[in-house]
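During the no-cost extension, the postdoctoral fellow (Dr. R.K.) reprocessed legacy sequence entries with the updated structure-token encoder. One reprocessed record is reproduced below for audit purposes.
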Amino acid sequence: GGGGIARLEPRVAPLHLYVAGATTMALYTSLGKIAYKYVNYATGTVLKSAKLVPVMAVSVLWLRRTYTAHDYVAAGFMVASAAFFGLGERELEPDGNQFMGFVLSFVCLGLAAVQSNVSDKCLRDYGASVNENMLYTNGIGALLVMVIVVCDEGRAAAAYFMEYPSALLLLLVRSVTFWMGAWLYTMLVKQFGAVAAVAVTTARKALTVMVSFVLFPGDKPLTVKYMLAVLLFFGAVLTEWSKSSKSRAGGGGG
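Re-encoded structure tokens follow.
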């Protein structure tokens, strides 16, 4: 019947995959925050923009996904675009970087590549729902991160929130927007795969800087690196558009 207690649907994907995905997510999230102690935001953006490369490599080697030449060219353009945007930021805001920051960032890239492809496998190969993936991956990951935070910075965080109670509201807003972003990202993985989802997040980094030119024109002069980044970004968009146009033309002929 129509009784009123909602039941949790049976899990579809193996639990060990969710544990692996949650663990890698917790590790790269924690290590990524630590890395920002050694590198500035611009350099971190450059390093994160390279995430598409290991994600595509793991996707091909482990999941046996195949991609066209257009996909590889578009990925290269997108990564180069985000990298030039980051380098442009660094040119305007130079800062000293340390070796440890680069080491941690590259470790994070590897962990992120594994986590994205684990989600891809759960969602597309096992047919898990987006809600199931979010529940197990983010639920287990949140518990792991909470343990790390409590053990490492629990007292300092409690003291900070007691001194600045409004920070709790900001944290709540950030948590809600983060959840929405994670849900949409998981939907992208479900429908199009890990590589496409990561390509969207890489494009988002580039678009964020582009919008900043409009919102803060006095703070961001359009340097050569920024101009190259914009050209590379549109090169990626045109490459994917060309691929889509050819696919539609091929599918419509017959």
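Confidence is low (pLDDT under 50) at residues 1-6. The two ends are 49 Å apart (CA to CA). The remaining legacy entries will be reprocessed before the final report is submitted.
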